[in-house]
């Protein structure tokens, strides 16, 4: 009884801290959820923080996000190796497990709350013309804050990596590592050679979809697109999203890879431990340890074998930059705010959806609208006129949602995206909390590249981030075609059964541009420019003759023995789709490379299409 009360008290405190009391039903919900899922909140299961650290480890893994969780877990499979995982944030909470609440974690204590430097090329509807760059500052990293979308990318993405001089990274060579992680729970996919069961990372369909989910697929078929498995043989087409979800709750990478091995004596996890410096021998240039801030004190841990940076595409290069190493950044961007009004009460209006009934349904049965990933239900990959349709290498992704910016009345989506209050009120006030759906067209292979610079030599100062979105004219051309295609999908006969019509409110700042011309869409793109948080390429993998390369094909930092980078930073080019699944694959493959390089036999099964 004491334990049950403490769980509820903790849950109420968490709810208050994260959402400011916005959801009055949470105490009751948490009481029921804790009662029926007590094993999730057992302190012996939940807490994973080593208080007393050794002075020396075989490996130090810096960053407990998606890649770091994988690397630390896999390296600690070798019982004679001692592994330390440093994480700047704390642990997950009960609320982070609830899929529909993901946007309420943005700008919370789980988020680094990064903002880009202001520019005039994009994000003009945001506060101070600065894009919000959400990054997870929590064990599990951004897998605790993201929308759990499982997309591997396109076959050609990885084949291009290999062609660029990175042996071992072709599609056929990386597929075993996608399969190694996967525990596919969808019966219609589990027997496919493109999927696997039994891995640590659960992949499943959402237990809940609105009627719009089926309609999106039918609308795509009406336009001539296939309904398929976008993680299978062909990518061009439409499908329901697959999610990193387990029994209706978020399956973060901490939950997948770290909690099952929390009792290993050779794995120490140090929370609230902010790495401030990689220690490098001035004579040999070898990395030999890490300096980090914990409990208000600077501490040092030494690495007998290697230091491995898995802190993500912002924090890993920041540490590298402090050592004079670093390069460019890639990110997918989309146009936000493409809204379609409908007459049927079938969308996810938050004031109607999030209530005591849906909370109890989630608590008792693990289904219902709270298992929705903020309404993101259907994915489409299309080719614009700038892409050869015979190549199956689409250049635009559609994220199709049963909710959109005004669906919560401006309560949190606006805040998470960084939209100014005056912009929201002018554009969305008249349809706040009404039934709508959204389509977010996202460019797959942007040519605009940004960069990251140090603000100072103080590692606690956030780096200066320059996104450079929409500075290459080809990106504008592709996205404009994507927007026009999205409008066409939203106004098909299938969608009109719901009374769908494009919300034709003129975009503030674009009044002097003729409506719905290419110039108008460009103007709109530069205002509600939505980062999809797919930062990558800041420590590029490439051959030694590539002046932009930071790591080699085995992810070793050039010129610094004993130092590797294993996260999205190393992507030579960004993959075609949401990048979380490729990041986990990079973690799996990187861990095996370390084992091989230190004489440990690995179990690798070749894969062929």
Automatic annotation (TrEMBL):
PROSITE patterns: GMC_OXRED_1, GMC_OXRED_2. One of its GO terms (molecular function) is flavin adenine dinucleotide binding. Keywords: FAD, Flavoprotein. FAD binds at residue 138. Its cofactor is FAD. Belongs to the GMC oxidoreductase family. This is Glucose-methanol-choline oxidoreductase N-terminal domain-containing protein. It comes from Cloeon dipterum. The lineage of its organism: Eukaryota, Metazoa, Ecdysozoa, Arthropoda, Hexapoda.
